[in-house]
Structure prediction request, 344 residues.
Amino acid sequence: MLEEQKRPIGRALTQVGVVGLGKMGILHAGILNSMPETRVMAVCEHASILASVARKLLPKSIAIYKDHQEMVENERLDAIFITTPIDTHVPIVLDIVRADKDVNLFVEKPLGSSHKQARLACEAVAKLQGVNMVGYQKRFSPVFRRAKEFIDTGSLGDLMFFRSHLFSSDMLHEGNSWRLQKGGGGVLLDLAPHLIDILVWYFGEPESVQATRGRFYSRQVDDYLLASMSFRSGLKGHIETCWSVRGFRLPELSIEIHGKKGTLTVTDDFVRLESGSENNYEPVQLLYKQSFDSSVPFLLADPEYTMEDEAFLRGENQPTSPKPDFFEAAKVNGLIDRMIESAT
Prediction:
């Protein structure tokens, strides 16, 4: 089994390159340039139209490239953010690693389009001097962090079962969006990884998986997934995710966990713990996201995006990669592949 290699402590990150100028590339670039000791020095965009727009709008101090290998060869970069379509993540990682053995790599979720691809990325970075990280920003949300604390400290007692869902209204008609193409990965690689990563973070990898999936508006990819899981501890649960549910302008993630000593519910907005036995009942603990101090120096989107980028930049001075690293992210790809295999 591949293990992450420890690395010597290095200097702080200062010069960053971004590959991909879609929504997430622009978001990360804005956050990074807001940090006093970090600057985006170069960007790469393969699409000619977007590259032309970037040349007109971005400061002249930022170099614009259409080829990521050329960017790595010409620029002295401490870190590179990869925010391109999912099926290009790992090929770009492999190109960069061949060109620069010391670079620090951040990849937007999921790590790859399959577990095989994710493992290739892990093998490539196993002996790098730089650190690596994958953009599962919900791990930095205070409500999901507090929920994990409740689980880890035994507030629920022995875990019995859970139910979870992640719904959105993204796909309500047929179209030509890249997300509906095979390379986009469908709901399983676009939406579901956020929830799957949290479940793996909370409970580890399941022993068995049974799944079913469906296509409503998409011909090449799935719009719906329902999967049940069983864990070695005896915990059982299910996940349901669909991006074709009306009434969800913003994605809604919810996890309800039942233990012998209580029930825990966590969403993007709050965490709720109801614990205690019949003779020793404790009041409900209800904490909204606004209850936590999530202040960041520069708020461009949800605070967890900035917290995520800060954690990655701090990680360059640590002996191991910040979490979730490539190796943890590969587990998400592994579980998705198991769901696909089961449904097939």
